[in-house]
Structure formats: structure tokens, C-alpha cells
């Protein structure tokens, strides 16, 4: 049987970095073993490039919004100003990628007429990839459409009523065209089942890690904690710092530790008593970030409760992959804490509980101080590789094509 043709429509794709990019990259890489893949994405040049997995069609979308993207080198004032402008655009329902959407739709039509696609996969957020597919499906209704939802849409608790209403209208518009829906966790999937009660095909395709960096044993001369990624909204290290200061005041730890922030904007306050314990590393490649995590004694996960369940945070999989213990500030009733517990991958504390955070920090510090290895379940680690998750997606596609 000849290979089926799949088009992946996404704003997020290499050379950009990020969790969303890694998810899309893994879709393209691992699906290409059994499907002909073509990716339609946002780029810095209008070009069509042949890669190991298939074709990548890039379209540009130069606009004012390109100037307000967050950057790890931004100072606090600049970061907050960009955030304000992005929120304003969101509240107004303005598409940042309108030019890209129109160009990509034209490119998708052109390629489909040259060599028809059997399946379209588009990924939210933003909504533009889904909007492209809706217009495509109006002309080619028989092509299978998988709507990949990395996040909630109208059920996102941080949106205004106006934003939720706009997204609800989008969800309703998509309903008649979607063949199957995928998302990153079981709770979010269950929420989408309520949004689309008539749709019968759903699949949980988790994020995961996507590297071959081997874990190493050993420990640093000072207790080294790594946080890789950005801070925004309530996702800040303030409570972690407060807990560490308490541990110092209570003589539970010595000041033989440091915290390394990798690719993190300096958009938060560092207590004066900890300034000498904090280092910043500029944004690095995914593989280099993994080596920082691997070489740490502990990796810091800061994932504030969002009011809904299902919030893994992509970095939890990378942290687990390097088999160094995680200090997790999370909702202990949510999926990230459950995953860490299932893998014996670290210690979780409720995000707002300073005492729990202090206890968790001291527990992991104690393992380092005693030169003991944290007993992580190594047998489960490879189950979290993205190729195993994409295999679920492959089986989902085969099911929808029958």
C-alpha cells in the first residue's frame, strides 16, 4: 500500500525553539517513517525546503507583532511592555499572522492540487492553523482533519469573557469539519469531549522528551539547581526563593547551593540574600539545555495551578529524561505531580505552600549532601520519548483513514 500524504500546519516549527516547536518537530520526524510529510509554517523567508522527513513550506508574516515577541534578553520593563501589547492584541481578537495565514492557505491549495493530501494536522494556539484548514475543508471536505489542541480554548480560565466568547465561536465553527481531536493530557481531552459531544474520535498525545542524551551519575561541588525556560504571569520563582530563605534561617541547609536559570528573562526579583547564588545563562539549543539539566543535582519545575487540570508543562518530560530529581512547585492533584510520583522522579510541593516547598528543597538537598542518588525509576524513562507518543498519533491517523 502506498504511503498516505500528511500536511502539518503550524506556526511553531524549527528554527524557532520552544515546547510547541518540539511537539510539531516530533510529529514531522516520526510520522515520516510511514507517511509523506509536508509542513506549512511561519518562517523568516518564503521558501520551500526539502528535509530528511519531507518538505517544509515557509511563509513570512512581517508585521508590528514581530517586534513584540518576548526575548530572554529583555529587561523587566521591556518584558512587561511587550506583555501589555500582546494582551491588547488578544483582547481585540487581532490575528498576528493574517498575512501568513493567507499565504499559507494559497500554498496548501497549490500543493494539494499538485499532489493531494489525505490528512491535515493543525495545531492550536494560535487559531490561525485551524482557520486555514476550515477554509481548505470547505473546498475539499473529504480530507481527514486532526485538530491538535496543545491548550484549552474557550475553557482557559485566564481568558476574559470576551476572549472566551470569541474562541467559543471558533470552536463551534470547527465542529462540522473536525475528523479527530488530539491534545496533551487526559483532563484537557475530557474537557474537549464536552465541547464536541458529537465527535467520537479523540486521542491523548502527550508531549515528551526528544533527545538521546544519556543520563549521568555524580554530583556537583555545590548543590546545583537548574530551571530551563521562561517566567510569565504567576509562573515566577518568588515562592521558591522564600522557601529557600526559610531553610537558611532555620539552619536546615548551608549556603552551598546555586540556581542556574537557562534561557530565562530576568523579569522577577531576587532576594538580596540569594543574589550570589543565582546565575543566568542565555537561550541555548534544546540539546544544550538538556545537558544543563543532566549536569544539575536537581531540576526546578514551577507550574502554578491554572484553575483547570491537565497542565503537564513540557519541561517535566525533559527533566525526567535526564534522571536527576525534580523539585516541583505544582498543583499536587494535577497530572505533573502524578507523573513525577509514578516515576519516582522527585518531590512535589503545592505551589502556594511555602512549608511544603521548604521541606521538598531540604529533602533533595539532603540527598546531595549525603552523596546519595535519588531512586528514580529508570525502567520507565524511555516510555516518555516522543517517538512512543507519535506512534499513538500514527495509529490514530490509520483509524481515521479507514
Question: Keywords for this structure?
Answer:
about 400 residues, six-stranded parallel beta sheet, Rossmann fold, eight-stranded mixed beta sheet, alpha/beta, about 40% helix
Question: What is the CATH fold-level name of the largest domain?
Answer: Rossmann fold
CATH class of the largest domain: Alpha Beta
Helix content percent band: 25-40%
Proper CATH architecture of the largest domain: 3-Layer(aba) Sandwich
% residues in beta strands: 15-25%
The number of distinct β-strands equals 14
Question: Can you describe what's shown?
Answer:
- With 402 residues, this protein is an alpha/beta fold.
- It folds into two domains: 4-61 and 97-206 and 386-401, Rossmann fold (3-Layer(aba) Sandwich); 223-383, Rossmann fold (3-Layer(aba) Sandwich).
- The protein has twelve helices and 14 strands.
- It has helices spanning 19-31, 76-91, 98-114, 128-139, 161-174, 186-195, 238-249, 286-295, 315-321, 335-342, 354-369, 386-401; strands spanning 4-10, 35-42, 47-50, 54-59, 119-124, 144-149, 180-183, 202-204, 223-228, 257-262, 278-281, 298-302, 326-330, 346-350.
- It has an eight-stranded mixed β-sheet with strand order 3-4-2-1-5-6-7-8, with helices on both faces. Strands 11-10-9-12-13-14 form a six-stranded parallel β-sheet, sandwiched between helices.
- Strand 9, helix 7 (238-249) and strand 10 (257-262) form a beta-alpha-beta unit.
- Helix 1 crosses helix 12 (386-401), helix 3 (98-114) packs parallel to helix 4 (128-139) and helix 7 (238-249) packs across helix 11 (354-369).
Amino acid at each position: 500500500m502506498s504511503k498516505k500524504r500528511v500536511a502539518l500546519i503550524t506556526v511553531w516549527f524549527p528554527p524557532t525553539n520552544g515546547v510547541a516547536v518540539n511537539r510539531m518537530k516530533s510529529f514531522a520526524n516520526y510520522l515520516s517513517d510511514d507517511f509523506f510529510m509536508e509542513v506549512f509554517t511561519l518562517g523568516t523567508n518564503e521558501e520551500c525546503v526539502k528535509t530528511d522527513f519531507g518538505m517544509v513550506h515557509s511563509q513570512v508574516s512581517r508585521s508590528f507583532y514581530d517586534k513584540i515577541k518576548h526575548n530572554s534578553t529583555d529587561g523587566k520593563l521591556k518584558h512587561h511592555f511587550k506583555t501589555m501589547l500582546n494582551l491588547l492584541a488578544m483582547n481585540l481578537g487581532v490575528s498576528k499572522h493574517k498575512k501568513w495565514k493567507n499565504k499559507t492557505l494559497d500554498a496548501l491549495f497549490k500543493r494539494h492540487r499538485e499532489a493531494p493530501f489525505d490528512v491535515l494536522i493543525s495545531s492550536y494556539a494560535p487559531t490561525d492553523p485551524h482557520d486555514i484548514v476550515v477554509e481548505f475543508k470547505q473546498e475539499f471536505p473529504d480530507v481527514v482533519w486532526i485538530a491538535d489542541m496543545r491548550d484549552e480554548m474557550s475553557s482557559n480560565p485566564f481568558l476574559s469573557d470576551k476572549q472566551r466568547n470569541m474562541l467559543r465561536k471558533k470552536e463551534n465553527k470547527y465542529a462540522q469539519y473536525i475528523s479527530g481531536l488530539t491534545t496533551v493530557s487526559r483532563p484537557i481531552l475530557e474537557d474537549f469531549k464536552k465541547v464536541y459531544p458529537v465527535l467520537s474520535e479523540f486521542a491523548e498525545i502527550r508531549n515528551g522528551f526528544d533527545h538521546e542524551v544519556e543520563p549521568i551519575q555524580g554530583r556537583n561541588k555545590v548543590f546545583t539547581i537548574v530551571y530551563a525556560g521562561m517566567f510569565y504571569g504567576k509562573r515566577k520563582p518568588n515562592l521558591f526563593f522564600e522557601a529557600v530563605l526559610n531553610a537558611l534561617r532555620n539552619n536546615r541547609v548551608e549556603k552551598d547551593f546555586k540556581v542556574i536559570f537557562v534561557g530565562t528573562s530576568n523579569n522577577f526579583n531576587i532576594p538580596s540574600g540569594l543574589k550570589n547564588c543565582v546565575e543566568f545563562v542565555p537561550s541555548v539549543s534544546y540539546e544544550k539545555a538538556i545537558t544543563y539539566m543532566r549536569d544539575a543535582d536537581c531540576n526546578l519545575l514551577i507550574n502554578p495551578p491554572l484553575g483547570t487540570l491537565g497542565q503537564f508543562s513540557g519541561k517535566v518530560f525533559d527533566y525526567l529524561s535526564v534522571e536527576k530529581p525534580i523539585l516541583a512547585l505544582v498543583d499536587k492533584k494535577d497530572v505533573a505531580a502524578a507523573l513525577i510520583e509514578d516515576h519516582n522522579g522527585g518531590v512535589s510541593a503545592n505551589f502556594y505552600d511555602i512549608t511544603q516547598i521548604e521541606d521538598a528543597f531540604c529533602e533533595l538537598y539532603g540527598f546531595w549532601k549525603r552523596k546519595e542518588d535519588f531512586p528514580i525509576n529508570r525502567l520507565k524513562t524511555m516510555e516518555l520519548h516522543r517517538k512512543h507518543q507519535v506512534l499513538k498519533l500514527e495509529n490514530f491517523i490509520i483509524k481515521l483513514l479507514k
